[in-house]
Amino acid sequence: MPLRAGQGPYPCSRLYLRWPDDTKGSGTAELAAAHRDLLLFRLVYFDLHLTYDHFLCVASSDPVPHIELKRLPLCTIPMVLPPFFKEDTVEPMTTHRWFLSNTVGLVRGSSPGHEDEFVLAQLASITNTPGTHDLKEAEVCVLRSRVSATDDEGKWELQKIPIQHKEHQYWRLDDWSTSAVTTFNNLICWICYYTGGILFYDVFAETPRISYLRLPTHNRPLYRERGFLEVNRSICVTDGGDALKYTSVVRTDDRLCGPLEHREGYRIIADILKTTEIADMEWVREPIVTASEFWRHNTSERLPRDAVPEYPLVSMHDPSIIYFLLSEEEEKINKVSVVTMDMVTNKMISVFPYIKGEEDLYGEDADMVQEKSHLLKSFLTSEFPKFLNLK
Q1: Long-range contact set of residues 167-174: C-beta below 8 Å, sequence gap at least 24
Q2: The domain containing residue 272 runs over which residues?
Q3: What is the tally of structural domains in the chain?
Q4: What pTM was computed for the model?
Q5: Please, are residues 59 and 37 in contact by the beta-carbon 8 Å criterion?
Q6: What is the dihedral of CA 43, 45, 47, 53, to 10 degrees?
Q7: Is 300 within a domain?
Q8: Residue 256 counted as domain residue
Q9: Domain DUF1618: where (predicted)?
Q10: Cα angle value 243/245/251 (rounded, 5°)
Q11: What confidence tens digit (pLDDT) does each residue in 1-40 have?
């Protein structure tokens, strides 16, 4: 279970989760979300239908360093599926709720009066506001509870929240498909790289609010790529939590992944989200970096010329530092490294082996290596407590 730490000597950490032997069915566990000192685990198993059990992992140093794992209440609110085609006249179908990847966000309160609160929110769907054609609303399934609560405390509720957007931007929400989710201050951010937008959910507002912001329009993806866009895109919280940075790795050979074609390269395009004097938000473009500039400052042994930096992740503290995964194809499994790049000097700061190669097939991480070597995923960001990094 990969997790990117906010501090410490290494850019990423591995978590090992072992469930009791009597766990129901043949469930699979996944790290679903993270914020500050909270981690959200999800156990998915089949019991007449798919069941999603959520567990909150709380890291604390008071009175001594320790972690707690708390089971959250099961969500029993059904999901209503709209007709597949807009012109269909069949009745909507009701089904057990699905918690798909990248639809669930987690936020721990930090403002006065909310320090012990956390919110778990699923973006279930976006539909037209009844009686309108240009107003949209989001269906959000929400669990609000206390960090210090006991197991199964809290209650799920369903909210229908109007989406605030600028005039004539409503059509961009028609084909929304959530690609990623992150937490920015007290806002849960659902991101769609395909249509190019972010939904900001103001969790602790007196009246729940969701607003839409368009992403910069560079390198709009092809339709066939829409399910794999996290390979070369990311939106990360940085600058100590005060900014969002949107990073894209744009290949010149039009391939989504794999080794570069001969004489081809890539560009790294980044935009920082700034707040203006009128309390509005706008994207500010940073200088574009090309593969040639990377190659000029780094040897081919450290930065192979046919390997493309993937899964960009910006440092939580320094916007100029970006971590990339660098995958090199080998016969049995791919060799994967985490490289740390300074985007001002274009020099590589460090290389950290994530998957060393065939030798890892026989170590304690063999199961993870077998799965992740060819099916990499983005890392989750977290202010991981230092005491958990101790051996």
Answers
A1: 169/212, 169/214, 170/134, 170/135, 170/136, 172/196, 172/197, 172/212, 172/214, 173/126, 173/136, 173/197, 173/212
A2: 224-360
A3: 1
A4: 0.88
A5: yes
A6: 10
A7: yes
A8: yes
A9: 195-323
A10: 175
A11: 444 433 344 557 777 777 766 555 567 888 899 998 899 9
